Amino acid sequence: EPPSFLTQPKSQTVVAGSTVQLEVTVRGAVPWTFQWYKDGRPITGATDPSLRFVVAKESDSGEYGVKVANSVGEAFAQPFTLRVL
User: Fold this and answer.
1) What angle do CA 65, 71, 77 make, to 5 degrees?
2) Is the peptide bond preceding residue 3 cis, with omega within 30 degrees of 0?
3) What pLDDT, on a 0 to 100 scale, did the predictor assign at position 7?
4) How would you label 25-43 residue by residue, b for 16+ Cβ within 10 Å and e otherwise?
5) Cβ contacts of 18 within 8 Å, gap of 6 or more
6) pLDDT digits 0-9 by tens, 54-74
7) DSSP state of 18
8) pTM of the model
């Protein structure tokens, strides 16, 4: 079964310095691979089902997305915006 999202992040606004945890849950045939994107570009090393900012900075603001893939196919989460003030 190709992957599909059960939950995915929504756009949000947070205060600089706060911790932000972005997560997805998926279903489908395992194993899965993940790739997070910021402003359309892959984030180096961001290949887990969650993306965490321990101390969010204004420079973390942007449009994010995530792709999950398995041997049968791939799925892209709806893009969402993270705004750090």
Assistant:
1) 15
2) no
3) 96
4) ebebeeebebbbbbeeeee
5) 55, 56
6) 999 999 999 999 999 999 999
7) -
8) 0.93
* Distances, alpha carbon 43 to alpha carbons 14, 18, 33, 73, 79, in Å: 20, 20, 14, 21, 14
Q: In the prediction, which pLDDT does 85 show?
A: 96
Which residues, other chains included, contact 41 with Cβ-Cβ below 8 Å and sequence gap of 6+?
Answer: none
Cβ-in-10-Å burial (0-12, 13-18, 19+) of 69 comes to: middle
As given in the structure block, the two tokens for residue 70 are: 């398995």
If phi over 0 gives left and psi between -120 and 50 gives alpha, with beta otherwise, what is residue 10?
Answer: beta
pLDDT digits (tens, 9 = 90+) for 2-47: 999 999 999 999 999 999 999 999 999 999 999 999 999 999 999 9
